[in-house]
Design goal:
Layout (H helix, E strand, L loop, with lengths): L1 H9 L5 H17 L6 H9 L1 H12 L8 E3 L6 E3 L7 H8 L3 E2 L1 H4 L2 H4 L7 E8 L5 H8 L10 H10 L10 E8 L2 E9 L7 E7 L13 E5 L7
Parallel strand pairs: 3-7, 5-8
Antiparallel strand pairs: 1-4, 2-4, 4-8, 5-6, 6-7
């Protein structure tokens, strides 16, 4: 019963009073543009009312954004320290002892760029089926603020193994490789963090992830972390 009531509430149409307020709001906005609006733009919206109708419809009736992930690490401090990556290839082979995709360590020493300060990470559970690019872009269109260095990915899996999805589900990390972005999928194939694998996918990979699996993504938080 409560579900039916909620649906009825959501389907209620705007009142005449609300529509009058909307009209006045549009008029106020147009008045603010006096002296600034270009001739051809004013003519388009003024004479072609269908164009204005379509614009307002898209603006006012736009569905709410779809959530693909849910933060599960909360306020927990997951800090990655600055580190020397001279031996990161050996460390990666030790951490991902079950399988390490060769593309992950290709040119690692020459291209790795480590941050000057500690970095705080956050873990998000994937709650809706989607593609890798969709998951990361849903958190921020500026991918550079989400990505990790490959050394940081290895460190996270060393330091926070309990945060890696187990039983074959993937934990995804975004990293820069050349001019583009790639995604490292880390999985605990045995359980309890004892045997990790790492596979590399292009960010543009077309396959879908999610559904009933416990996939998650780990990204860099925006604010600087305290040491």
């Amino acid at each position: 019963m409560s579900g039916n009531i909620q649906t009825q509430e959501e389907d209620r149409m705007a009142t005449e009073g609300q529509l009058d307020e909307l009209r006045l709001s549009v008029e106020r906005s147009v008045n603010k543009l006096r002296g600034r609006l270009k001739f051809d733009v004013a003519e388009k919206w003024g004479r072609q009312s269908s164009s204005l109708d379509e614009f307002l419809e898209g603006l006012l009736l736009m569905p709410p954004p779809i959530c693909y992930t849910k933060l599960i690490s909360g306020t927990e401090m997951l800090v990655l320290d600055s580190m020397d990556d001279d031996q990161i290839i050996g460390r990666a082979r030790r951490v991902f002892s079950e399988y390490l995709d060769p593309r992950f360590i290709d040119g690692l020493v020459e291209t790795s760029s480590l941050p000057a300060e500690p970095t705080k990470a956050s873990v998000h559970k994937i709650i809706r089926v989607g593609k890798l690019a969709t998951f990361f872009n849903s958190l921020s269109p500026e991918l550079n603020i989400l990505r990790f260095s490959r050394a940081q990915i290895v460190q996270f899996c060393e330091k926070y193994r309990s945060k890696i999805s187990n039983e074959g589900s993937g934990t995804f990390f975004l990293f820069k490789q050349g001019e583009g972005f790639s995604v490292a999928r880390v999985a605990d194939v045995v359980g309890y963090g004892k045997s990790l694998v790492l596979q590399v996918y292009e960010l543009s990979y077309k396959g879908d992830w999610g559904g009933y699996e416990n996939h998650q993504i780990v990204v860099q938080q925006l604010e600087p972390a305290s040491p």
